[in-house]
Design brief:
Layout: E1 13-15, E2 20-23, E3 50-53, H1 71-78, E4 81-83, H2 85-91, H3 95-98, E5 108-114, H4 120-131, E6 138-143, H5 154-173, E7 178-184, H6 189-201, E8 207-210, E9 214-215, H7 216-219, H8 221-227, H9 229-236, E10 240-244, E11 266-267, E12 275-281, E13 295-296, H10 303-310, E14 323-329, H11 338-341, E15 344-347, E16 350-353, E17 358-364, E18 372-377, H12 379-397, H13 405-413, E19 419-420, E20 429-431, E21 434-436, E22 453-454, H14 456-466
Parallel strand pairs: 1-18, 4-17, 5-7, 5-8, 6-7, 8-10, 10-12, 12-16
Antiparallel strand pairs: 2-3, 9-11, 12-13, 14-15, 17-18, 19-22, 20-21
Helix pairs in contact: 4-5, 5-12, 6-9, 12-14
Length: 467
């Protein structure tokens, strides 16, 4: 989801992740539906295809800055905070690993997006040069013949934003890991899923990061069943797949763009063969030092965030996704949390920063001119950052770890220090006079932030020795 707020100040803020679904054209060789073991699900559109794209209505670009925005600048003008990667990395205790040479060397993170960005290579280089991260190890793989980039196309702009945040923050978290960007030619769920299949079959990397998805009910059980083997094959191939849990809270959108009035969970995050990543709000002061534990990300009721992003005081759905799957039964590794999930797969599994009230700086030039620094947020921040954590653990282990969920739940059961509690919050959202009551953070596992957040200094070696 890509949202912009108009303001007299020079800042554009992106909210990139689980995206708006609308009816779309059919994809050759693809059906549209996903499903597996339990519950009822809706059917996909008659064409068998859903388009996944960033929300682009009432969106326009605003100017960007030549240097990253400081937290103080953002708070003074927009009443939100902005941080650079160094501050986010410090919040997760990653510098302690970097000082030991644990930066993801020898590992590869794969990112799958539609269209991509025509300037991502140069943008990543500028991002790296400013922040001192070294030479960016980026390779671009195109799957299918996509249209030429059109800066007047809101969806392409949204995907370019998405791509930029995905790539730059995967690289920021694991600066020595190689990055492979898979650009698929169409913004359909099928095309994106087939892009993942291509990455798995061609063994493009050790960790795959996905910042897109759709509610299971919008896709339908047939589609879920048809494309589920992609992710089980990834696990069999010892490829870790990290997927955003969503950024519409307990709700999500159907294939007409309407929000569900009851809790829904997003696929492919619901696959038991992926790690579903939820979202928190970092509790940092202006210098980036922690003030305390994170809270669950929920900006639905923040008038400041709504006014900046939507141009009204809200409420609008803007929160971490999390719910029970209607298509997958509870996997074995969630047995210890069955009082929360019941007989179904629950998401998320783990959480990291994504709040739009605590945004992060990115560098982009794809709209023309010299471009510059903007601030971004959403689950396209949290998913690639957790993918970076897995890549660091892969380096320590000296091998790809594959599905890390069994290790995560075992570590949580042992109260390992790498998994950090989230203080409070919920993913209840409201819109147009409707409230979808979600779930609340509780001690232990919950359907808002999963097992909790991360202390990378501990979690990386814990995963390396447990997965």
């Amino acid at each position: 989801m890509r949202l912009f707020g108009a303001s007299s100040a020079r800042l554009a803020v992106a909210c990139a992740s689980v995206l708006t679904a609308v009816a779309g054209g059919a994809v050759a060789g693809g059906n549209a539906a996903l499903g597996s073991t339990a519950g009822s699900a809706g059917t996909a559109s008659a064409s068998g295809s859903l388009v996944v794209h960033p929300a682009a209505s009432n969106v326009h670009r605003v100017s960007m800055a030549p240097v990253p925005f400081s937290a103080a600048q953002c708070e003074a003008v927009f009443q939100i905070k902005c941080f650079v990667p160094d501050q986010v990395e410090a919040a997760y205790s990653l510098p302690a690993l970097y000082r030991q040479g644990i930066k993801g060397k020898g590992r590869t993170i794969v990112i799958v997006d539609a269209f991509g960005s025509p300037t991502i290579s140069d943008d990543l280089l500028q991002f790296d040069q400013y922040l001192g991260l070294g030479t960016p190890p980026l390779r671009i793989v195109k799957v299918g013949h996509g249209p030429a980039f059109n800066p007047g196309n809101g969806d392409m702009i949204g995907w370019a934003d998405e791509t930029t945040l995905d790539v730059e923050y995967a690289h920021a978290g694991a600066p020595a890991a190689k990055i492979v960007l898979v650009e698929v030619a169409k913004e359909t769920v099928q095309s994106l899923a087939l892009g993942v299949k291509y990455a798995v079959q061609h063994k493009l990397g050790d960790v795959i990061s996905l910042s897109w998805g759709e509610p299971e009910q919008a896709l339908g059980r047939q589609f879920v069943s048809a494309y589920s083997p992609i992710f089980s094959q990834a696990a069999k191939s010892r490829i870790s797949v990290v997927v955003s849990s969503g950024d519409s809270g307990a709700s999500g959108q159907d294939d007409n763009g309407n929000y569900y009035h009851h809790p829904v969970a997003s696929w492919p995050a619901t696959s038991p063969y992926v790690t579903a990543v939820g979202d928190t709000t970092l509790n940092l002061n202006a210098s980036g030092t922690r003030n305390g534990l994170d809270t669950a990300w929920n900006d639905t009721y923040s008038a400041d965030v709504n006014n900046f992003f939507f141009g009204d005081a809200g409420p609008n759905p803007l929160a971490t996704g999390g719910a029970k799957s209607v298509d997958y039964g509870r996997p074995g590794y969630q047995k210890a949390v069955r009082t929360i999930t019941g007989s179904q797969r629950g998401i998320p599994d783990i959480s990291m920063s994504a709040s739009c009230g605590v945004a992060v700086n990115v560098f982009e030039t794809f709209t023309g001119g010299q471009g510059g620094w903007t601030a971004s947020c959403g689950t396209s921040e949290s998913a690639p950052m957790f993918a970076a954590i897995v890549a660091l653990a892969d380096q320590v282990a000296g091998r790809p770890l594959g599905l890390v969920n069994p290790a995560l739940y075992t570590l949580a059961g042992k109260h390992a220090p790498g998994i950090v509690p989230v203080a409070s919050g919920n993913n209840t959202v409201s819109f147009s006079g409707v409230t979808v009551h979600g779930y609340s953070v509780r001690h232990g596992y919950n359907l808002v932030t999963g097992l909790g957040s991360v202390n990378g200094k501990y979690l990386v070696p814990e995963l390396a020795h447990s997965a």
